[in-house]
């Protein structure tokens, strides 16, 4: 079950002027399940995004990049679950383009003004006919109050929908930021997460918007991992409609970025809290590194270790496994004698071994919590990095041994 | 349960002249369990080894390297299970040295002529008193026929003991090679495996022996992974007593290396077949790469993917997960359109997607086997690499969630 993660409340999600959302149950993989989302943007909105670095990136990722580059103004996004349209070769490309063409026809815009997104099983043909048949229903119920349903429509193995809203004052005016995301397994984003959409009614020029979405991704989705598997379909999109009339330039950037980052971090952490089979939410902070890269390298070695993850599942303070992971992380000149390891505030190891002050019952107490902090102090420099991950349980195996059935 | 892995038969393990083995139940972690092994070598034997690259390498690894470098001739090896003596700081170093000193006293040699090895839980103090108390028993039963018991004495979570013998004709004379290994979890050797000892009665000068053990490790233990966790205690030792009177120089090297590699590969594969919770043994062959490094990189991405491993556990041909792993392996200029993926002889994917000839029932048939081959043809060059791994089951989580209790 999700770890300390509350479901979003429909009434607490704030509409973003200039954004409408429509949902359909298109029967893509299962019947009677919301699995198709159309997001319509007002004319003049700017859109930026970051995408997976997986070489087997999905057809919709390729097409979305092309359409963004075409720079004709994006008017709609189409998202389906139940099928990733990845590892589908040239037919997959044709299906992604056909999805855009049909949505464009219904919405009265050009196909290049539509961005496609898919998530679900890899290497299965996309059922284009069902998507085409479902699109009119989604377009028919387009509305600005549908963020709650939209968050549900993009779920796959997610147990809890992920959605959050924030408001920020910019030049005395209120700007709204609302975002949704999905993801639970195949989570080790490398540019962005499985799928995330954050919209604001601020007006932000595209080049700045692209910088801001990259920065938000680096502060959020690029700091999480569930299983170390980087998806073929990762995408984080930032949509700015300008409908509030508030212009964001360099002077307003910091305040706006803070609000966007907060939404992105909340959505990213929700993915980990809802990680497949997760029973613990673990924050890994690595400090005192020579640079951020080595801090992240060590953090991910800990976060990906099946031995560390199963020990957390068992609440077993078998903390030597963390030392082993630090040791094989690939930092060749690491001096383990200078390193300190903490579990929350409990000093576990120093001088290359167990701390004299460490008592097993202190480690045990922290391990039993559902939210746990690991802190590694390297004693090599001033850089640091924070990652979020979860434990590894019977249910992870169960979910992934039976995902397709 | 181990995958198509037979337990060694006591009578089929061949003594190696010049090698005696003694075993004790020292109560290091549990009572009445063989957990201490002494290997005594005849004077004049040469010894070479490769060790873990983990920066948190165990105290006995540090001491073994020192004693090999001291070059006084190695006369004994002492191996304990139940405690890794890793992450134990300066006290751990003192305990490893004290173990050597006590064994040296009992055997009448110098402490620098003894190599220590430990395996078991990390970051717990080594119970030196129990080892010292157990050593006389091990020394008292030294004998050349004890390979079977020795293989059992070094087990931790292993279900089946690992031991094998080969004979090879060199210059018309028979040379014997017998080896043992242990390991089941924390298996992603990077120099060698958890613990492996291979002995021969050939005479091989130390510099050549060092080249041969490195080559054997690269062909065997450096090609396996269970969970991607590189141990703090990995060591593969090659012992050459010369008692057969057969000299191995450059002219005899190829024949000798072939025999040693065969023993090493057998022992390494046994570790994967006995991988924690394993139900499938998977051979991953990556061909057509630009160099071996990128073939191994892609092979390990597949071998480490929890999603791939759980799909194999479930016999679920959800083979898009393999494509995703290939895609995120980090080969930046990989052209996925040129790649072919086979499951045994079944062509699964080509031209960036599912092969037209692929039928789910063919994939299903292969996935149900207990020995499965994955073959990836990259279409980039002539290099190749073969790795061996296993699947990921409920029992892996169970074993590692309860290892210490």
Overview of the molecule:
Two copies of one chain form a homodimer. The first copy, chain A, has 405 residues and is an alpha+beta fold. Chain A has two domains: 10-273, L-amino peptidase D-ALA esterase/amidase (4-Layer Sandwich); 281-401, Ubiquitin-like (UB roll). In chain A, 33% of the residues lie in helices and 25% in strands. Chain A contains eleven helices and 17 strands. In chain A, the strands form four sheets. A six-stranded mixed β-sheet of chain A has the order 15-14-13-16-12-17. In chain A, strands 3-10-8-7-6 form a five-stranded mixed β-sheet, with helices on both faces. In chain A, helix 1 (59-70) crosses helix 2 and helix 5 (206-219) packs parallel to helix 6. Chain A is globular, with a radius of gyration of 22 Å. Chains A and B meet through helix 2, helix 8, helix 9, strand 15 and helix 11 of A and helix 2, helix 8, helix 9, strand 16 and helix 11 of B.
How do the strands and helices of this protein lay out in sequence?
Two copies of one chain form a homodimer.
Chain A: E1 19-24, E2 36-41, E3 46-51, H1 59-70, E4 76-81, H2 89-107, E5 114-119, H3 128-140, H4 147-153, E6 162-170, E7 173-182, E8 195-200, E9 203-204, H5 206-219, E10 235-240, E11 247-248, H6 250-273, E12 281-289, H7 292-304, H8 306-313, H9 320-327, E13 340-343, E14 346-350, E15 353-354, H10 360-367, E16 371-377, E17 383-390, H11 394-401
Parallel strand pairs in A: 4-5, 8-10, 9-11, 12-16
Antiparallel strand pairs in A: 1-2, 2-4, 3-10, 6-7, 7-8, 12-17, 13-14, 13-16, 14-15
Helix pairs in contact in A: 1-2, 2-3, 5-6, 7-9
């Amino acid at each position: 079950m999700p770890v300390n993660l509350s479901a979003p409340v429909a009434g607490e999600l704030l509409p973003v002027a200039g954004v409408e959302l429509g949902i359909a149950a298109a029967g893509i993989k299962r019947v009677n399940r919301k699995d198709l989302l159309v997001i319509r943007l007002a004319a003049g909105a700017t859109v930026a995004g970051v995408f997976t670095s997986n070489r087997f990136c999905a057809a919709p990722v390729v097409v979305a990049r092309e359409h963004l580059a075409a720079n004709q103004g994006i008017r709609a996004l189409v998202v389906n679950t139940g099928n990733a349209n990845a590892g589908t070769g040239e037919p997959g490309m044709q299906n992604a383009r056909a999805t855009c063409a049909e949505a464009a026809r219904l919405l009265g815009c050009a196909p290049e003004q539509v961005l496609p997104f898919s998530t679900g099983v890899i290497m299965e043909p996309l059922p284009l006919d069902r998507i085409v048949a479902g699109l009119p229903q989604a377009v028919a119920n387009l509305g600005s109050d549908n963020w709650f349903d939209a968050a549900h429509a993009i779920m796959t193995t997610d147990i809890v929908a992920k959605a959050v809203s924030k408001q920020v004052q910019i030049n005395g005016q209120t700007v709204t930021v609302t975002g949704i995301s999905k993801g639970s397994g195949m989570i080790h984003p490398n540019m962005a997460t499985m799928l995330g959409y954050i919209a604001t009614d601020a007006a932000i020029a595209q080049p700045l918007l692209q910088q801001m979405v990259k920065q938000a991704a680096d502060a959020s989705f690029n700091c999480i991992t569930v299983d170390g598997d980087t998806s073929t379909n990762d995408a984080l999109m930032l949509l700015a409609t300008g409908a509030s009339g508030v212009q964001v330039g360099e002077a307003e950037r910091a305040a706006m970025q803070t609000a966007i980052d907060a939404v992105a971090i909340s959505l990213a952490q929700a993915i980990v809290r809802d990680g497949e089979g997760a029973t613990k939410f673990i924050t890994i902070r690595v400090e005192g590194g020579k640079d951020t890269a080595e801090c992240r390298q060590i953090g991910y070695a800990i976060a990906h270790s099946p031995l560390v993850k199963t020990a957390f599942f068992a609440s077993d303070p078998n903390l030597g496994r963390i030392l082993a992971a630090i040791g094989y992380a690939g930092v060749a000149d690491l001096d383990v004698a200078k390193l300190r390891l903490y579990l929350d505030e409990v000093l576990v190891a120093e001088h290359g071994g167990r701390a004299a002050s460490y008592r097993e019952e202190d480690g045990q107490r922290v391990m039993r919590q559902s939210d746990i902090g690991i802190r590694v102090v390297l004693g090599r420099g001033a850089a640091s990095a924070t990652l979020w991950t979860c434990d590894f349980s019977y249910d992870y195996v169960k979910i992934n041994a039976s995902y397709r059935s």
